[in-house]
Model the fold of this input.
Amino acid sequence: MRVRISPAAPKYQTKCKLTRYPCVFYCGYMAKKEATINDLDKKMDNLTGTVSDLSKTVGGLSKTVDGLSKTVNNLSETVDNLAIITKKGFDAVYKDMRKGFSDVDKRMEKFETGQEDIKLRLDNTAYRFELEELKKRVTVLEKSKFA
Done:
């Protein structure tokens, strides 16, 4: 695209190094015009304002980082407290379970002892078929003695 150079302002329009045509846009390839003291003064004022803005931004970021650091420390303390509370809870449950299991063990020992007693009694008693056999023999003996 060709740009017509205005005869009224020839020093503000320069030829582009890339296209070799007059260019009024700054595209990085354009030849630079000579800087004046006023231009440099304005640029220095802009630069000072930018540095000031950046220092304010850095100060704000510093405060934000400090706040985040405090928040992280608080969260760390909270997590530690929750871990301690959780451990205490698990310890209490463990003690209760141990006590409950020891009670169950005692009851099981009583049941086992009772079961052994029952087995010993059953071993000493005659079985039903033996009783029937003895009954028949007594009946036969009674008949033979009293007959």
